[in-house]
Amino acid sequence: MSDHVPPTNIFTDAELDTFRAEDYAAGKAVVILMLSIFSTGVVLYSIVAYAVAS
Q1: Helix (H) or strand (E) holding 26
Q2: Tens-digit pLDDT profile for the chain (54 aa)?
């Protein structure tokens, strides 16, 4: 088959846990930013729709 040696993990378990925690926090930040941008768009669209309807 293959003569390659399987790669060893160069990170400790503590470092991997830190990476996971940072990734989770970054994911939450992205979702919060996306929701805030979407909400801002809905508010602006509602203001324009109200102004056009009246």
Answers
A1: helix 13-53
A2: 578 888 888 999 999 999 999 999 999 999 999 999 999 999 999 999 999 999
